[in-house]
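The pair is quoted verbatim below.
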Amino acid sequence: MQYFFDESGNWKGRERKRLVLGGLQFMEANTRQRLSTEFKILKTKHNLSYLHANEMNPSAKEECYQIIAKYLERDAQALIHIYSPKILRENTRSSYDMIYMEKAAEIVSMMIFGDSKPKIYFDMSFHSAYPNNVISNLRKKKPRHFKRVINTHTLLKKQEASQLEYIQKRLKKVKKNNSVLPKFLEVLESNPKQAISAYLFSELILQVESKDRDRELFRAAIINNLKNYNESLASSAIIPEIEVNFVSKEQNNAGVEMIDIINNLVYHNGLRPHHNSSEATIKIYQNLKINEVTR
C-alpha cells in the first residue's frame, strides 16, 4: 500500500500551540492518481502551482476540504498524532531533530506494520543546518565536488542585499561563544560578498550531508520499531525492505499534499473542529483517527 507523511507546527523548538505528525494510507493503487486529477483541476481553477493550506484563499481551501472529506469516507485512512510542545523542552538530552525523527519513525512504523510491500512518501523536515552549525562548519574542509562549484560561483549584485539581510537574521541565533563567529563578522564587514558566499555554501553542504545521514538513521529507526513490534507481539511478520521516498509539496505529490492539509487543519483546530466549522471540516474530523500523545 501507499503511505504519505508530513508534520505541522514548529519542530525547531519554538512551538507554543501544538505539534502534529500525520500519516495517510490509500486503500487502492489507483487512489493517488484519481486524487491527483481532482487536485490538478482545483489548482488550475484557482491558479495554484501546488496545494498548501497557508497559501490558498478561503474558497480554494473549502473546495480542497470537500475533496479530502470525500476520499476519507471510502478511499483513504489517516492517523494523526498530536504532541505538546513540552516534549521538545523536557527532553534536553536529545536534539530537536532526534526527537522529531523518533516520533516520525513511530507513526510510520505503526501504520506500515504487517505490510510486506509498503511504499512510503515523506515530506521530511530535518533542521541540521542551524546557524550555529553553519558558522562552525566554515572552518571545515569542503568536499572536492563542492569546491569546484564554490570556485566558479559569483554572487549576483542584485542578490547581495537580500542575502546579507537573510544572514544577519540567522546570525542572531548563533551562540556568542562560537569561536568562528568573530572572524566571520570581520570578513562580513570587510568583504561582504565573500562572507555571504561562504555562509551560503556552508549551509548548503550541511543540508546535503546531514540529509543523507539523517535519512539513513530514520530508515534504521523504522526497522528497529518493526522488530520491537514483532518481539512484543510474538509475531513472525517479515520485516520488509524499507525505502522512504522523500518528497515535498512543491513536487505535486497528491498524497503528501492531502496529509499536509489535514495536519494543518488539526494544528489550528486541535482534537475537535471549531463550533463554526464547515460541513466538509466536520466530515474530515469524523473520519480521522487522532491520538493525543503524552510521552
